[in-house]
Amino acid sequence: MSVPKNKKHINENEPKLKGTFISVMLLGGFLVVSWIGAFLLFISRGI
Fold first, then answer.
1. Count of structural domains within the chain
2. Domain annotation covers residue 3
3. CA distance 5 to 8
4. Can you list the alpha helix ranges (DSSP code H) found in 1-47?
């Protein structure tokens, strides 16, 4: 019979992406706020 591989060992080699996720969310939030700010500025100037 074959010996099953230890799945815990496989997970240890995977990079932790929590920091990447947070930085991407912050960058996305900045872009959304920038677009909303530009849109509100455009609307407030009366086309």
1. 1
2. no
3. 9
4. 7-12, 18-44
